[in-house]
Specification:
With 78 residues, the chain is an alpha+beta fold. 42% of the residues lie in helices and 12% in strands. It has three helices and two strands; from the N terminus they run H-E-H-E-H. Helix 2 runs parallel beside helix 3. The longest helix is centred in the C-terminal third of the chain and has 16 residues. The chain is globular, with a radius of gyration of 13 Å. The protein starts with 11 loop residues before the first helix and ends in a 5-residue tail after the last helix.
Length: 78
């Protein structure tokens, strides 16, 4: 577990608990989007990921992205 304010070097799937599903969101697309969101530069428009075999479980990804957007709207406070 990381200390607040300290850089967390764990892979995104570990940091956010992304699970692999039989059919889920494309892992590379999700990780690229979350990386940009964490850097303060979320892409404009609607979030859409391709559905692929052995992708990230959709509900978990949706929850994490919604939470990150809420936190960004509050200046990053939890």
């Amino acid at each position: 577990m990381s200390v607040p304010g300290e850089k967390d070097d764990r892979p995104l799937y570990e940091r956010f608990g992304f699970r692999i599903a039989r059919r889920g969101y494309d892992r590379d697309q999700v990780e690229a989007y979350v990386t940009r969101l964490l850097a303060g530069a979320p892409p404009a428009g609607v979030v859409a990921f391709d559905l692929v075999r052995r992708g990230y479980e959709r509900g978990g990804v949706d929850e994490v992205i919604a939470r990150l957007h809420r936190e960004a709207g509050r200046g990053g406070r939890s």
